[in-house]
Amino acid sequence: MKPALVTGASGFLGWHVVQVLRQRGIPVRALVRRPASVEDLDAELLQGDLRDPASVARAAAGCSLVFHVAADYRLWVRDPAEMFHSNVDGTRNVMEAALRAGVERVVYTSTVGCIGFVRGGLGDEATPVSYGDMTGPYKQSKYQAEQVALQYASGRLPVVIVNPTTPVGEHDVKPTPTGQTIVDFLRGAMPAYIDTGLNVVDARETAEGHWLACEHGRVGERYILGSENLTLRQIFEALSAISGRPAPKTEIPWLVAWLAGVCSTGLANLTGNPPRVPLAAVQMARKKMWVTHAKAERELGFHPSPAGVALRRAADWFQGNGYC
């Protein structure tokens, strides 16, 4: 059996995708920057970098499937060009390598940030959206990368796109920005909240959604992999019920949060140290990122658990692994 190439296999969501593939008996080849630092990954490790076309081509050679999960996911970066190089140029390198290798299917991991949002309603794959709607280098670079994937899908490459919402769960090692919010809450370091909303989904089930997209997705189509729409306050209340810690009761006005983001990010740009309050995160929070996964449910058979299941798994894993 030919292997499946997974980029980002050492990251949070990529690790879960590897588990899903191995459970089905599919051999996995993982493109990683530093193989010696990767543990607990049942895969053939190949050293390389998304920004290096030659290493990506070597990794894709002989593979039947490609899952391009890797991305530079930071809400602040001192040099935005780095993020565009990894996310946009890296995606182009992966698509070109997959085309040359003649793979049977490519699943590209985009983000819910590339979905249009509806004030007072739910966004879906058909909601109008443009580059001008993107806030910050991460969303801007992912939007451009998704356009690259769509361009290849309209040609000779069988690409299916998935748009995960906010995955949470086990093995969030770094952790991700959302995982860090959970850790901060469990540490008692979250005294207040802002009025925003997220769609929360289990990371393991999101990885299953990648496989369903590989099996049943239509080439050139996008599929939202999400579960439950919650306000940030509701997320903290759910974590409170899980952990016994009190949920914050103070709501921060958006203008105050924006000023904090301006000051914190301005200082970060001077010192090079990541900001405590990234301005991009505050700007993104202005909109409730609420969507529906009805298309994935209908076409892929994607049936996620309630968000509370994912939040409990995340909290248990962080507590059990010394994060809080």
Q: Report the sheet-strand fraction.
A: 15-25%
Mean pLDDT: 95
Under CATH, the topology of one domain can be stated as Rossmann fold
Q: How far apart are the termini?
A: 42 Å
CATH class wording of one domain: Alpha Beta
Approximate shape: globular
Which secondary structure elements does this structure contain, and how are they paired or packed?
Layout: E1 4-7, H1 12-23, E2 28-32, E3 44-47, H2 53-60, E4 65-68, H3 80-101, E5 105-109, H4 136-153, E6 159-164, E7 166-168, H5 177-186, E8 192-193, E9 197-202, H6 203-216, E10 222-225, E11 228-231, H7 232-243, E12 250-251, H8 254-271, H9 279-284, H10 294-300, H11 307-320
Parallel strand pairs: 1-2, 1-4, 2-3, 4-5, 5-6, 6-10, 7-9, 8-12
Antiparallel strand pairs: 9-11
Helix pairs in contact: 1-6, 2-3, 3-4, 5-11, 7-11
Describe the structure.
- The protein is an alpha/beta fold.
- It has a domain at 4-169 and 203-226 and 291-304: Rossmann fold (3-Layer(aba) Sandwich).
- Helices cover 44% and strands 15% of the residues.
- The chain contains 11 helices and 12 strands.
- It has helices spanning 12-23, 53-60, 80-101, 136-153, 177-186, 203-216, 232-243, 254-271, 279-284, 294-300, 307-320, and strands spanning 4-7, 28-32, 44-47, 65-68, 105-109, 159-164, 166-168, 192-193, 197-202, 222-225, 228-231, 250-251.
- It has a 7-stranded parallel beta sheet, sandwiched between helices. Strands 7-9-11 form a 3-stranded mixed beta sheet.
- Strand 4 (65-68), helix 3 (80-101) and strand 5 (105-109) form a beta-alpha-beta unit.
- Helix 1 (12-23) packs across helix 6 and helix 5 crosses helix 11 (307-320).
- The N and C termini lie far apart (42 Å).
